[in-house]
Amino acid sequence: MHKNKLAVVAVSGGMDSCVTAAIANQEYRLALIHINYGQRTQTHELSSFNEIANFYNVEKRLVIDLRHFAQIGGSSLTDNSIEVTKADLGSHEIPSSYVPFRNANILSACTSWAEVIGASAIFVGAVYEDASGYPDCRPEFFSAYEKMIDLGTKPETKIKIETPIIHFSKADIVKKGIELGAPLHLTWSCYQSEDAACGVCDSCAFRLRGFEQAGVEDPIPYKIRPKY
Known about the structure:
Blueprint: E1 6-10, H1 15-24, E2 29-36, H2 42-55, E3 61-65, H3 68-72, H4 102-117, E4 121-123, H5 139-152, E5 160-162, H6 170-179, H7 202-214
Parallel strand pairs: 1-2, 1-4, 2-3, 4-5
Helix pairs in contact: 1-6, 6-7
C-alpha cells in the first residue's frame, strides 16, 4: 500500500511507544522523534529508539535534548536525590516518577517538527491505565492540546493527535505488538537500570504484569522477575 500521509511518532524506546509506531506504520510514513530529558536510563532509551527506527527503516528521525527537565527536577527520573520507589500497582497517588508537565513539552516539540515537515498526525503512546498517576496521560489532556495546536499553528496546518492505545491494558498492548510484529525485544521500560531491567519499579511491574496476563515471556533481561 502506498502511504502518502506522514506522521510524527514520539518514541521513547519503551514498549508503548514501539507498539504505537507499529500501529502508525500501517497507514502512515513515519517520522520518529525522541526526547532526552536527563532521565536515568537515557542512554539505553536512545539506543532502543534508534534500533526501533532502524527496524522500520525510518530515515526521518529527530533527537531533541530537553535538559531543562533535569534542571527543574521534581521527579525521581531526573533527580538522583529522589528515590525511584518500588512498584505499587494499586496506588492512585502521583508517583515520584512523574515528570512535571512532560507530555506537554514533548508534544510542543512534535508539533513544531510536524508543521515543518508537513505531517498530518502526531502519534503518542499514552495509556489511560497510567492516568491515575500521570495527569498528562488523560484523554482530555490530548483533546485539549489538539485544540491548542489548531489555534497556535498556521491556518493551513491541520495536525491530529492520535493516541491509539490509550484505552488498552498492558496485556492488550503486548498482544497488539505481537499481532503487528513490533520489535518488543528492542524496547526498554525500566526507570532506573540500563544493563538489566530492575523488575521492581512501576514501569517494570506494569510491563511484567502485561506480559504475564498476555501469556507471553518478556524478551528483555531482568535482574529479578517478580510475579505481579
